[in-house]
Amino acid sequence: MVSPRKGGPSKQGKKGPTLSDQGRKEMMDLLRMGEKSKNPDIRKAAIELAKQTSKYRRKQGARVSPTLILWVNVVLGGAAVLACWYALLHYPKGLAYELSSISILLFLVVAAISLLVSGHLSQANFMKVVSAVVSHLKEWRNPQRNASDDPQPQDNDHSDGDSVPPKK
After folding, report:
1. Residue 12 CA: distances (Å) to CA of 3, 8, 9, 68, 80
2. Residue ranges making up the domain that contains 57
3. What band does 40 get if pLDDT is binned at 50, 70 and 90?
4. Who's near 143: CB < 8 A, 6+ residues apart?
5. What's the domain count of the chain?
6. Average pLDDT of the residues in 8-24
7. Does residue 7 form part of some domain?
8. What are the CA-CA distances from residue 10 to residues 2, 16, 19, 163 (Å)?
9. Cα(156)–Cα(162) distance, rounded to whole angstroms?
10. Residue 46 placed within a domain
11. How far apart are CA 66 and CA 94, in angstroms?
12. String of DSSP letters for 69-113
């Protein structure tokens, strides 16, 4: 036997004011408080708070849906993976690695821009992503190879190419 749910009547029937109505009411209350006050400092503070509330509400309303940003970034990530796969299948190894690197860097920049515009990434972190991409591009454009990173075969007098001198 199923027992009835405890906790009283359903809350679906109760409808309260929407968040935008609550924000409007809060802003109007601040403006009324400023009008009723005889102190000019309180008036200025109330008007400033009302302005900030209005700006915050507009900023929240202008945000892009997090679900939309997630889907855009997932699709872009999938496109980057497919581009890497295509490059590795159809191009020589060196060129494929370069094309894959470009597609991944492009994905990182576009994802960072979409997250910045939607308000999910701070400007400081956006600049960190951009500076990392720029430093990678500078390194890729001007490769300076160290002797320890890329050992070059040394010329010697041996005809067989061995680097070990013959025993005497």
Report:
1. 20, 12, 9, 28, 45
2. 20-62
3. confident
4. none
5. 2
6. 63
7. no
8. 17, 14, 21, 86
9. 9
10. yes
11. 38
12. HHHHHHHHHHHHHHHHHHHHHHS-HHHHHHHHHHHHHHHHHHHHH
- According to the model, what pLDDT value does residue 121 have? 83
Contact 78, 101 (CB under 8 A): no
pLDDT of residue 147: 43
128 and 71, same structural domain?
A: yes
pLDDT for residue 109 is more than 90: yes
User: Same domain, yes or no, for 122 and 58?
Assistant: no
Residues 107 and 75 sit within 8 Å (Cβ to Cβ):
no
Of 16-25, 81-90, 120-129, the range with the highest mean pLDDT is 81-90
Nearest-angstrom CA–CA distance, 126 and 135: 14
Confidence band of 12 (pLDDT split at 50, 70, 90): low
CA separation for the pair 32, 24 (Å, rounded): 12
Q: Are residues 82 and 137 in the same domain?
A: yes
Q: pLDDT, tens digit, for every residue of 72-94?
A: 999 999 999 999 999 999 999 99
- CA gap 71, 65 in Å, rounded: 10
Tell me if residue 145 falls in helix, strand or coil. Answer: coil
Query: What are the start-end ranges of the H helices in the chain?
Result: 19-36, 40-62, 66-90, 93-118, 123-141
